[in-house]
Amino acid sequence: IQQNQLYMVYQPQFNAQGNLHGVEALVRWNDDELGFVPPDKFISIAESCGLMPTLGQLIIDTTLAEMGKLQKQLGYDFQVSINISVRQITQDDFLDKLILSIQTQRFNQRNITLEITENLFIEDLDIVRPVCDSLNKLGVGISLDDFGTGYSSLSMLGELPFHEIKIDKGFIDNILTCTKSLKMVQNIISIGKNFDMQVLAEGVEYAKHEAV
Questions:
Q1: CA–CA distance, 163 with 198 (Å, rounded to integer)
Q2: Cα 171-169-180 angle, rounded to 5 deg
Q3: If residue 41 lies in a helix (H) or strand (E), which one and from where to where?
Q4: What spatial distance separates the first Cα and last Cα of the chain, rounded to whole Å?
Q5: What is the distance between the alpha carbons of residues 107 and 26, in angstroms, rounded to a whole number?
Q6: b/e string for 127-141 if b means 16 or more Cβ within 10 A?
Q7: Are 197 and 164 in contact (CB under 8 A)?
Q8: Cα–Cα dist 83/59, whole Å
Q9: How many whole angstroms separate alpha carbon 200 and alpha carbon 116?
């Protein structure tokens, strides 16, 4: 972080018509000595040593600055999804820092979606709920990431003001060969529609996936 070795990449998200819906912000690290360090390695270390709030704020600031600039260049707005950790969202000053970043970058908060993984915050629900309520009032979207992989995904839909659920890539990878995965995806889509939520599938990389 101090040596500015972290950078952002952005994975596009498309709607059913093939138009750009938004992007997901993903942090990456290239170290002079270690080379490329995968995020599943360094993010867990940041979590364990208490650096996740600092790293998370860097991700928010960088993402809003870069995507705000890109939206102005393109001449239209799109959604920007940012992953938030439980260590970050439970900080007392999380909302204040987020609002300051939004104001500093003059970013439309209604184009921001914060992604939260269900199994990270189940034990901190009483702390997370009021924060999510405040985000909802602010106009910031909240997405339940990796839906279907946790034991309490369904109950979470009634606890917090989610506007989107994301189908885990593991289900999408197998929908062409595994009937159970296919039925799981179909059921999740039905759940999302019944709750008037957007449904986003991770890992749709082939035309056959999209057709399903």
A1: 6
A2: 0
A3: helix 39-48
A4: 42
A5: 19
A6: ebeebbeebeeeebb
A7: yes
A8: 9
A9: 14
The residues with which 25 forms a beta bridge, in sequence order, are 10, 82
Tens-binned pLDDT, residue by residue, of the chain (212 aa):
999 999 999 999 999 888 999 999 999 999 999 999 999 999 999 989 999 999 999 999 999 999 999 999 999 999 999 999 888 998 999 999 999 999 999 999 999 999 998 665 566 788 888 999 999 999 999 999 888 776 556 777 888 899 999 998 888 888 888 898 899 899 989 999 999 999 999 988 888 778 77
| Tokens (6 digits) for 38 | 């995968």
The span from the CA of 88 to the CA of 193, in Å, is 30
Q: How many CA atoms lie within 13 A of 131 on its CB side?
A: 24
SS3 state at 77: coil
61 and 48 in contact (C-beta within 8 Å)? no
Reading the block at residue 165, the tokens are: 């659920």
DSSP state of 76: S
DSSP annotation of 204 reads -
Identify the CA nearest to 159 among candidates 118, 199, 194. Answer: 118
Q: Which amino acid is at 164?
A: E
Provide the 10 A C-beta neighbour count for residue 90.
14
Residue among 20, 96, 88, 19 at smallest CA distance from 51: 88
Strands 20-31, 6-14: pairing kind: antiparallel
- Residue 147's identity, in one-letter code, is F
